[in-house]
Amino acid sequence: MTTLFSYCIPHDNGAAPNPFWGVCTLVICKPRIRREAEVGEWIVGTGSADSPIGDIRGKVVYAMRVTDKMPMRRYDAYVREHLPNKIPSWHSRDPRLTAGDSIYDFAYDPPNVRKSVHCQCDRDRDLRGQYALLSEHFYYFGDQPRQLPNHLQGLIKSGQGRRSRANDVYIEPFLARLDSLGLEPNRLFGKPRGNLFRKWAHDVEFRSKCGSSRTVRASESCRRAGRKSAGG
What we know:
By secondary structure, this protein is an alpha+beta fold. The chain has helices spanning about 30-35, 70-80, 95-100, 125-130, 170-180, 215-230; strands at about 5-10, 25, 40-45, 60-65, 70, 105, 110-115, 130-135, 140, 145, 185-190, 195-200, 205-210. Strand 12 and strand 13 form a beta hairpin. It is globular, with a radius of gyration of 17 Å. The relative contact order is 0.22.
């Protein structure tokens, strides 16, 4: 039976998921989902009930059907050849490049952490996921999230973690709901946003300087640890 995974997105920063360049990918964060989800299964990200962004609470930020799953090492090689824009370019003026999710450079052992929305502090959690999930059948709503009707509100995971088998009763009605919207898949119906995004005057509205307030704190912690190590 197809599994529908659901979880809450407290901050939608364009990196997890990364909906750009025609393929929606989940490569960092959510290690259990990345290990467990298989090709053909669905992943749904909703606004958290306690999200600081009030108008995404209880709404769908994105939905993707997994169409490929590969070890993170192979994903790194794959994007080099097929999706180079998924490799983060931290100083780019294009936020889609800043938010690249191919963060780990497996040309090194252990893999280097490319300058990106994550740092060394995130390594263990990210690599624990082992796999990259790719989708060529997705709906990304971002800052234009879609309301879940009352009979589907049970999909929403309260707090951290994910729902999977508990969602079995919602699979058919959720997919029917998606189909009823009459939307073309593999399109962005909104843009990523987060409390640290800022506006640009060009086609892409937001630039991510960091993934979230948690990422900022982690990055500062990494820098402090590095300074302490260098001094000792």
